[in-house]
Amino acid sequence: MSLKAFGRRIHALRWLVIGAWILALLVSSFFAKDVESVLRGGAGAIKGSQSLMVDTLLYRDFDNPFTKVAIVTFKSARLTTDHPDFQAAVAKIKKDLVEKPFIRETLSYYDAKDERMRTEDGHALAMLVGMKAKDMREEEKILPELREAIRETKEAYKKSGLLIETTGRSALTYDFNIISSKDSTKAEGRAIPLTLMVLLLAFGSLVAAGLPLFMGIFSTTVTMGLIVLLGQSVELSTLTQNIATMLGLAVGIDYSLLMVNRFREGLKERLSVSEAIAETLATSGKAVIYSGLAVLTGLCGLFLTPLFETQSVGVGGTMVVAVSVLAALTLVPAILSVCGTFIDWPPQFSKSIQSEASKEAWRKWASFLMDRPVRALLVALVLIGTMVWPVQKFVSGFPSQKWFPLAMESRRGLDVLADMKQGWSIFPVYLIVEKKEENDTPILAPRYLAKLLKVSRAINGDPLVGSVVGPVDLQPGLSSLNYLMLYSNLEKTLSKYPKISQLFLSHDRKSTLFQVVMKDSATLEESKAAVKRWEKLDVGENLKIKVGGQLVFYNDYDEAMNASFPRVIAFVLFSTFLVLFFAYRSFLIPLKAILMNLLSVGAGYGALVAVFLLGWGRQLIGLSEVVDGIPQSIPLIIFCVVFGLSMDYEVFLLSRIKESYDQSGDNRAATAEGLALTGGIITSAALIMVFVFGAFAWADMVLVKMLGLGLAVAVLVDATVIRCLAVPAFMRIAGRWNWYPGEKGK
User: Is the pLDDT reported for residue 348 higher than 60?
Assistant: First the structure.
């Protein structure tokens, strides 16, 4: 069935199509409200990695309750830890928690008498809370129950100035989920009014302007419902919601904008509503299909990455784009069939982008470019080169803890730990030393003790290390001889001091555990380098060492992303070439498109570096200081998303140029006509995307800020400098070679 025939079929069945989509919307809305419950923060585990292996060993082989830990902090400007009211508050929280079935054990400053667990001025302290969890996911599920268990006590003492906060790795992840969801809601609120304004200026009609906006919200809502259903069986990141909101509003509006624009042109040409729908599907519908395929191709590249975080972006992105394309090809023409000429109500509400004056302005611009293509192309390349220049200052890495917003309870607790000079305590390093020999001799037997002491000395001697806790680091002042004597009769020692077995020995006694906390002065990159050194510590032929924890995860993350970049880029470039080659039967068109898209991506990267690393204009998006580095997942996501979205405008422009070329065979005239007819719609669509993505640049989470800003700048550059300057100039220079080896036009 041709697209024209499909359009006539949609017109005939318009009420059935609308009814089916309304049912889908109602069902999706019912599920969409629970989207936060199926998403999780963080980058997730990396299959086959060292960090995942050590995490598995900790959960499976050790009984240490404080490897699955939350930290409750207490701080008062008035009271000190020696005050009875302070002590009573800690005792009450302890009582609230130990009664709960999901809590294993608590340990506060009062229990351990460890000065590291309180501030020097005595106005704050920390309590470790061990949770009954078999993995990180269970820790995140327990966290809200833990907070609820102490909520009443927390609120009661808050009135007297004693602030109680819950932090830790699982708490940060949980709070990240909540803030990310709020960021999406706030961004929608910022973007929708601006989007409506652009649509009103573009169409001059409330109905025509309202339909694309409705479709953007519609596509996003339906996708959220699908995400909840998928999330019942597949682990998804909070970024799934962020990207689905971004792309749902952006492409949902863009595709509808293109369809509505072409339908109105058909009505102006005095076609019947049925024929206008058929013509819209045959032209703009075809462009939407190719554009959707290109966007999906870019997003599918994210499935080749090893992280559930980036894969989740691929899931959310592909789902919302697929829904948007399907809705644009069915629901939009069905609604247009019902609206008919009412689509222009009220007429002349504002200046329409389809006015002859507007088209004439674009024709003059096109004529100007056609007469000066080389100069125009050089100007475009200089402009983009200037924007790409900051990329040479790119530094990969993760922002430090201070970039978590203060709205997060876990961030406030983290600040208290920093006051204790224990900021790294939520991300300890775990060293597991295990036997290679197949015998029943325990790891703490005298024959292995010398090597364990050597490991301890090496770690303690590192200037980046703040503290070490392990089987030969029980308390300060004990010598090697003391430990040899202590473990000379291991059974007796473990019977007398069962905590040694619980905290440091595996169930089979063939492995032992060291827990290391870095100094607060240690930077992230220094700490990552340190754990790499520890992986190579000499423990002899009979032992082996495994290092885990968040810092090791960061190293695994870098290695995994570096390994995935080449295959993702190769996949996206090759797939994009194929889509455009089969769409236009040309070698040069896809090669040119790939080159231009790379320039757009480079401009987005340049903006990221300029704002987040160099600090140019950072105050405009609420960034108080520059960050330490940009996670490698951010450039990769921007590459895949922008490469797909850039094809929107490429297809919009090329489709009109190809139509004109097929009719006239004149490349110069076809290029000018295509730009004149699509320049306005492309800039309107781009403004909408810029507003949608830009709204996320004011998010609370810095990673979401990065995505929003990078995407907004890349799309803006692509739709203006690239599509309205560089591409027409290039096509004018290339002449008939643009369409080789396809048809040469009439």
Answer: no
Task: Evaluate whether 643 touches 708 at the Cβ level (below 8 Å).
Answer: no
Q: Supply φ then ψ for residue 744, to 5 degrees.
A: -95, 5
Beta partners for residue 435, in sequence order: 543
User: Is residue 591 one of the residues assigned to a domain?
Assistant: yes
Total residues belonging to the chain: 746
Helix or strand (DSSP H, E) at 290: helix 286-300
Element (H, E) at 491: helix 490-496
Q: Give the tens place of pLDDT for each residue, 78-109.
A: 999 999 999 999 999 999 999 899 999 999 99
- Are 702 and 627 in contact, with CB atoms under 8 Å apart? yes
Q: Which of 645, 739, 14, 655 shows the shortest CA–CA distance to 283?
A: 655
Same-domain check for residues 27 and 111: no
Tens of pLDDT, residue by residue over 149-193, are 999 999 999 988 999 999 998 898 888 878 887 888 888 888 888
Q: What is the pLDDT of residue 533?
A: 95
Task: Say if residue 520's pLDDT is above 80.
Answer: yes
Residue where one domain finishes, among candidates 167, 200, 232: 167
pLDDT category, 352, cuts 50, 70, 90? Answer: very low
- Has residue 549 been placed in a domain? no
Instruction: Find the helix packing angle between 702-717 and 239-268, rounded to 10°.
Output: 30
If asked whether residues 563 and 659 sit together in one domain, one would say: yes
Whether residue 609 contacts residue 393, with contact meaning beta carbons closer than 8 Å, is answered with yes
Domain boundary pick from 479, 513, 541: 541
In this predicted structure, the answer to whether residue 213 has a pLDDT above a threshold of 70 is yes
CATH assignment of the domain containing 313: 1.20.1640.10
Nearest to 321 by CA among 227, 231, 261, 255: 255
Q: Which domain holds residue 287?
A: 3-42+174-402+555-739
Alpha-carbon gap, residue 74 to 573, rounded angstroms: 53
R_g (Cα) of the chain, nearest Å: 30
* Tokens read off for 186: 């706030």
Domain identity same for 523 and 564: no
- Taking the C-alpha atoms of residue 522 and residue 621, their distance in angstroms, rounded to an integer, is 28
CA–CA distance, 564 with 716 (Å, rounded to integer)? 28
- Dump pLDDT digits (tens) for 592-639: 989 999 999 999 999 999 999 999 999 999 888 888 889 888 999 999
- The tally of domains found in the chain comes to 3
- CA 724, 726, 732, 737 torsion-angle sign: negative
